[in-house]
Prior knowledge:
Shape: globular
Number of strands: 0
Number of domains: 1
Amino acid sequence: MTDPKIMCRKHLLGEHVEIHMFIGTIKRNKRITGYIENNLIEMTSLLSRHKELADEMKRRGMNHKTDIDEKELKKFMKQYDETTVNYKIDRKRSKKELLKRCNECGIKQKSKKI
């Protein structure tokens, strides 16, 4: 949930792929508890986050061809309890972790003054 503008190419594309992986997991009726416990997924934001990432990819001149069917995703999300669906990522913690792990994202963050 870090601002995509400060993400390096690797992290931008990586998170985009992870969103599609999460959606595939949800569609296969697999549990996502571990992802929630590790601050990795915010189900109510999957669609908006995907749009943010796709928009940033396009802004950088990358191709984006993998849209998400909102109705289908909402249908599959009904299998999860309210606590899981409404979990919110600790955005400050996520950003801090990203900047700790990636010098390139840190440089982009400083240049954007975000």
